[in-house]
């Protein structure tokens, strides 16, 4: 099945470069481009792409607000944020807004294509090293745990809380299943229940939530 991608960036060279790289992949099709967040929201509604490659710093409507509007209008929308450096507070805000992950703009063609495929498959692009450093860096700036967090955590079972912590540490379902010595299907059930109980859309938001709720050692 061909993955349909919308590229959003205010720099023409970036859009054209990504379009050429992705267009060379047999399973990926670039269906459109947008030069700002407002145009991106309109293009997503019109084209219904499988994945949106979203720049953050853009005129009219930035990538954070555009991501928020897109996922609010379509819970299944998948946004992959583009950034020039990994420890970017705006990327952190975009993850909180509903982005499924992020990629550096200097990613190789293979990394770019693989990232698109991962997000399109319904998984969050949650690299244990980079994303954990990003979340840790900016979750520490919160004076207190995320306000609704403590009450929501109380709704989780002990095992669900344990799974949430492992998600935040960047483990996949298979790795969590191996760690807890249970079936992968059991972990998938736990993850689904965690997302429903906490009102989150994917594993990336779950990781952000866990750090902000201080379930994971911030800075560790």
From TrEMBL:
Organism this protein belongs to: Streptomyces showdoensis
One example GO MF annotation: DNA binding
Keywords: DNA-binding, Phosphoprotein, Transcription, Transcription regulation
Domain HTH luxR-type, first and last residues per copy: 149-214
4-aspartylphosphate modifications at: 55
Response regulatory domain boundaries: 4-120
SUPFAM superfamilies registered for this protein in UniProt: C-terminal effector domain of the bipartite response regulators, CheY-like
Pfam families xref list: GerE, Response_reg
CDD domains reported in the protein's UniProt record: LuxR_C_like, REC_NarL-like
Keyword Phosphoprotein: yes
This protein's record includes keyword Aminoacyl-tRNA synthetase: no
UniProt xrefs under PROSITE patterns: HTH_LUXR_1, HTH_LUXR_2, RESPONSE_REGULATORY
Name by which UniProt lists this protein: LuxR family transcriptional regulator
GO biological process, one term: regulation of DNA-templated transcription
InterPro entries per the UniProt record, alphabetical: CheY-like_superfamily, NreC/VraR/RcsB-like_REC, Sig_transdc_resp-reg_C-effctor, Sig_transdc_resp-reg_receiver, Tscrpt_reg_LuxR_C, WalR-like
């Amino acid at each position: 099945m061909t993955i349909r991608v919308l590229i959003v960036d205010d720099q023409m060279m970036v859009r054209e470069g990504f379009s050429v790289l992705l267009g060379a992949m047999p399973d990926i099709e670039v269906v459109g481009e947008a030069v700002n967040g407002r145009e991106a929201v309109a293009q997503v509604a019109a084209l219904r792409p499988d994945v949106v490659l979203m720049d953050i710093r853009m005129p009219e409507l930035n990538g954070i607000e555009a991501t928020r509007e897109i996922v609010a209008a379509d819970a299944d929308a998948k946004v992959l944020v583009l950034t020039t450096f990994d420890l970017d507070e705006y990327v952190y805000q975009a993850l909180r807004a509903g982005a499924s992950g992020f990629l550096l703009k200097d990613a190789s063609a293979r990394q770019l294509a693989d990232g698109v495929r991962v997000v399109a498959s319904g998984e969050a692009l949650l690299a244990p090293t980079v994303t954990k450093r990003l979340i840790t860096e900016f979750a520490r700036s919160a004076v207190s745990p995320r306000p609704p967090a403590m009450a929501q955590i109380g709704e989780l079972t002990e095992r669900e809380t344990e799974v949430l912590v492992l998600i935040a540490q960047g483990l996949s379902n298979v790795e969590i299943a191996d760690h807890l010595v249970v079936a992968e299907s059991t972990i998938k059930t736990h993850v689904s229940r965690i997302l429903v109980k906490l009102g989150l859309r994917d594993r990336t938001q779950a990781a952000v939530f866990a750090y902000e709720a201080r379930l994971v050692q911030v800075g560790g």
